[in-house]
Design goal:
two-stranded antiparallel sheet; 29 helices; mainly alpha; 5-stranded mixed β-sheet; elongated; disordered N terminus; 9 strands
């Protein structure tokens, strides 16, 4: 029985069955709207097919009009928001930031491309189109689109050495999946990757990246997708160890770390206003030198390689390796890549054709996991530099997806926003996403005029750039705060960390997500119940049971068993406080029906307090016997009085 104004007629019949007088019944049917969410109350008029079709067409027409409003267009093309107020100072700041990021991007993109198991030029191909597109589509000025360490390693584990054609198709599919996620609003899936899982994944990836670069640091051939595979592969070719690569790699790592430290150092007073001109000039100079550390190392090591190669008289146009103590990048095609669609079918040397679905099958589950990881990286950067402002995750999904689709037309592999370059961007004084234009132009300049000089870059120098960048990604410092906050959160984090080391990365991530889902489902299936003994004004003791969340099929049996156990143990009437129950399903309704039947058979009172009308409708759909709700606390006294009278009548009838 529901005691509300909205269902007066229906519940009057139930009150008559309880033989309640007219005045008392009118008091029962007066509910308090202070505790009711008025939704889904009353029967809605039925509509025929024609009316439903007209309603749908009206809704589509209204939505189509809102798509092309100025507000929506500026939201999906963020450049229209900041371009009208773009100033000369903004242009200067973006120019300096773009040049700084571009000089960092060129060596990094080549190094990350090698990490992905692809030619160095493919990293450069993915460094200018996405940067140019993000100028128009991006919402975060600090995000520099292009190859990153995490996505490159994921690409390597996904492709398994299949080659550049597969890498380009993977870039296209990554962009399409990201674009679809943005259009249909699936960005919430990223929320299922918790902080501990993300930290465990990032730390494992950092260790795997370092392990994957050992082969270039010691001059051997190796492959593998897990830590154990890499170690075994390196040990098999350790006899071809080259001392020149090792010494050059170690020196480059030390120099990069020292220059990185230099960028963080300051001389003079900490307060900028108290510094002299000499102090400011020196601090700015040290910061610039430290920021350009990757470019400095590449230029100097390339010059060393040039001196070695020219001294031997080696022909750089040949396909033979130069006879020097360390390995170099070798020939890189000059000029910009041709505009071309990704290959959806590949013809083998024997004349057979590999279809699209066979290509996707060979790529595996990484085609689904990689886009999500790339989005996490980009959105994490946006949140880091948001300064308390809301992040438009949907727009970032659309922007990242379109950038990857655009990159795939120029033979690139997947990319996203880079943490290391975003820090450089912010420190360089970036004003708007326009910096991506200047960074992209710098990459285009390098492809047009600098490719002959890229031949001399030592592979050990590129490996040193990667190692020096990722060793700081191992998030050891988060372990103690997680332990102090909630120890159980370490379980998915550590499980993800070790799973990513010993298993393929996509499986390791899925294990971490799975553990998070298990934790969520466990808490959903085991709601907290507050059980207290209360007393009415007439001195009747009863159990007040208060669940802290909705009743759905995983949890309702658990709640029923606890209610039954406590009611049998204490032999008291039970009141279930439903103030926190905002939803229920059919399974919950059936269990409530059984619960009311059990109480009715025992002659034990069971009442539901403050149950939302939408939930009442769900429960009443199964027509439970003895289902009584109330909304005023003083109504409970009357309900108990009537219950006592009924019990007394039953006892008298049984004695007679």
């Amino acid at each position: 029985m529901t005691i509300t104004n909205d269902d007066n007629d229906r519940h009057q019949n139930q009150c008559e069955k309880m033989e309640v007088n007219e005045n008392l019944r009118s008091q029962y049917t007066i509910g308090s709207n202070d505790f009711i969410l008025v939704d889904e109350v009353g029967e809605r008029p039925k509509k025929n097919v024609k009316e439903k079709f007209h309603e749908l067409s009206t809704c589509l027409n209204k939505n189509s009009k809102t798509v092309f409003t100025y507000k929506t267009i500026t939201k999906r093309l963020p450049i229209l928001q900041w371009w009208p107020t773009y100033t000369t100072e903004d242009g200067i700041g973006d120019l300096l930031a773009g040049i700084t990021v571009g000089l960092t991007l060129i060596p990094q993109s080549m190094a990350y491309s090698a990490l992905a198991g692809l030619p160095p030029q493919q990293g450069l191909y993915g460094s200018f189109v996405g940067s140019l597109m993000y100028v128009f589509l991006g919402t975060c000025k600090e995000v520099p689109m292009g190859p990153t360490a995490i996505v490159s390693l994921m690409t390597y584990n996904t492709l398994h050495g299949l080659g550049p054609v597969y890498g380009t198709l993977l870039c296209f599919l990554t962009g399409v999946i990201q674009l679809i996620m943005g259009v249909v609003g699936l960005g919430f899936l990223i929320d299922f990757i918790s902080g501990p899982v993300n930290s465990g994944f990032t730390s494992a990836v950092a260790i795997l990246i370092v392990a994957s670069q050992i082969k270039d640091l010691i001059g051997v051939k190796a492959a593998g997708t897990t830590l154990l595979d890499m170690i075994i592969s390196i040990s098999k070719d350790i006899s071809h160890y080259q001392l020149g690569d090792t010494w050059l790699g170690i020196i480059c790592i030390v120099v990069i770390l020292l220059l990185r430290r230099m960028a963080l150092c300051q001389i003079g007073p900490k307060d900028v206003n108290e510094q002299t001109t000499f102090h400011r000039v020196m601090n700015r100079s040290m910061w610039l030198i430290g920021t350009f550390r990757n470019s400095i190392v590449v230029i100097v090591s390339s010059y060393v390689g040039y001196l070695y190669i020219t001294s031997t008289g080696h022909d750089v146009t040949s396909n033979d390796l130069p006879p020097i103590p360390f390995k170099v990048v070798g020939k890189i095609p000059s000029g910009l890549p041709e505009f071309d669609l990704p290959k959806f079918s590949i013809t083998r040397d024997n004349g057979t054709t590999i279809g699209f679905f066979e290509i996707v099958s060979s790529i595996g589950s990484g085609v689904i996991v990689l886009p999500i990881i790339a989005l996490i990286e980009t959105i994490s950067i946006c949140k880091t530099f948001a300064d308390g402002k809301p992040v438009d995750a949907t727009q970032e999904l659309l922007a990242t997806g379109l950038c990857n689709i655009g990159n795939s037309f120029f033979h690139a592999y997947p990319g996203s926003g880079s943490f290391s370059r975003s820090a450089v961007n912010a420190a360089s004084g970036v004003r708007t996403p326009m910096e991506g234009l200047y960074a992209g132009i710098l990459v285009i300049f390098a492809l047009l005029f600098c490719t002959p000089y890229l031949y001399y870059i030592p592979k050990a120098a590129l490996a040193a750039i990667i190692v020096a960048a990722v060793i700081f990604m191992v998030e050891v410092r988060v372990v103690r705060p997680i332990y102090r906050s909630k120890k159980s959160d370490l379980i998915p984090g550590l499980a993800t960390f070790f799973a990513c080391l010993v298993l393929p990365l996509e499986i390791g991530v899925l294990i971490g997500i799975g553990l998070n889902l298990v934790s969520i489902l466990y808490h959903a299936a085991r709601p907290k119940l507050l059980i207290e003994v209360h007393k009415t004004r007439d001195g009747i003791n009863y159990l007040m049971v208060t669940p802290d969340r909705c009743l759905v099929f995983p949890s309702v049996d658990y709640v029923r068993n606890l209610v039954m156990k406590q009611s049998l143990k204490r032999e008291l009437p039970v009141v279930i406080d439903c103030s926190h129950i905002y939803g229920a399903d059919f399974t919950a309704a059936k269990v409530i029906e059984m619960l009311t039947q059990d109480f009715s058979k025992r002659g034990q009172a069971l009442f539901f307090y403050n149950l939302k009308p939408s939930v009442v409708a769900v429960f009443e759909g199964v027509q439970p016997k003895g289902f009584i709700t109330y909304y005023h606390r003083h109504d409970l006294d009357r309900l108990f009085q009537r219950w006592k009278q009924q019990r007394q009548q039953i006892e008298n009838a049984s004695t007679e």
